[in-house]
Each structure stands twice: as structure tokens, then as C-alpha cells.
Fold this sequence. Notes:
alpha+beta, six-stranded mixed β-sheet, 3 helices, 54% strand, globular
Amino acid sequence: xxxxxxxxxxxxxxxxxxxxxxxxxxxxxxxxxxxxxxxxxxxxxxxxxxxxxxxxxxxxxxxxxxxxxxxxxxxxxxxxxxxxxxxxxxxxxxxxxxxxxxxxxxxxxxxxxxxxxxxxxx
Length: 122
């Protein structure tokens, strides 16, 4: 059974998947470490928000896979995500996000996605 904080963080994750730049400006820390197949490194909140386009994902669903709170002001969540991209193509990935608690609430400080190839793909 997910904890209240895990549910709250997954709700933020959903807003980041389905919202536009404003969701990122609201929920990302000033700097965020990201790791994707084609991009890895530290990005500013502004750069991340600039790259976000509303409507790029739809039919987003999550299956929680793990949650940990290593300290009082940090928490990490891992989930399996399925979504449909703006081009209509399916997307399936394991996703991990790390959050830090700030005065303005929980902020995304780490985000990583590992795409899961379709069955039978190499």
C-alpha cells in the first residue's frame, strides 16, 4: 500500500508527464540531474521547462515499483510507465525520480528513464 508521500510524488510525476512547462517550473528544483538514453547531466529548471511541451504524452499509466525515504527531506520513487506519445507511438519505461523537500514543497532533483523495448524487439 503506497504511503501518502508516495502517492503525492506519483501525482507530481503524472503532472510532469501530462502538463506543460508550467508543471516543470512548479515542481522541478533549481537544478535536476537527468539520465535518458540520449541525454544525461545536470539541467536547470528553466532548460527543463523549455523542453516540455503540453500534450506530448497521453494515456499515461503508472505501476509503482519502489519508494524510499533515505532522510527526512529526500524521497525517491520508481515506477513502470506506459504512455502514448504525441506521434501515437507507445512508450514503456522504468522511471526513477528523486525529490528534495524545500520550503515550497517537494521538488524533483533527479529523474531517469530506461525504455523497455516491445516484446520481441532487440
